[in-house]
Fold this protein.
Amino acid sequence: MQIRDLARLLGALSTTDRQMIIGCLIAAEDSGLSQLEICEITGLSPRTCSVQLEAMIQADITFKKSEKNNLTF
């Protein structure tokens, strides 16, 4: 891993909102969670969840998959 990649990853993990999201995604294991479920568990607003999830996707911390018209992270 390059230093720049490591710095980007650590930066992506540096917010409390993202740490809460990561915690609930880890607890969900392979089943994943919808954005609504993540909002309900963390207490974050849908907009905050969306912004944080997109940043985490860009940093390769998580990914989204589409199943039957539902996005799961």
Q: What stands out?
A: The CA atoms of residues 18 and 66 lie 21 Å apart.
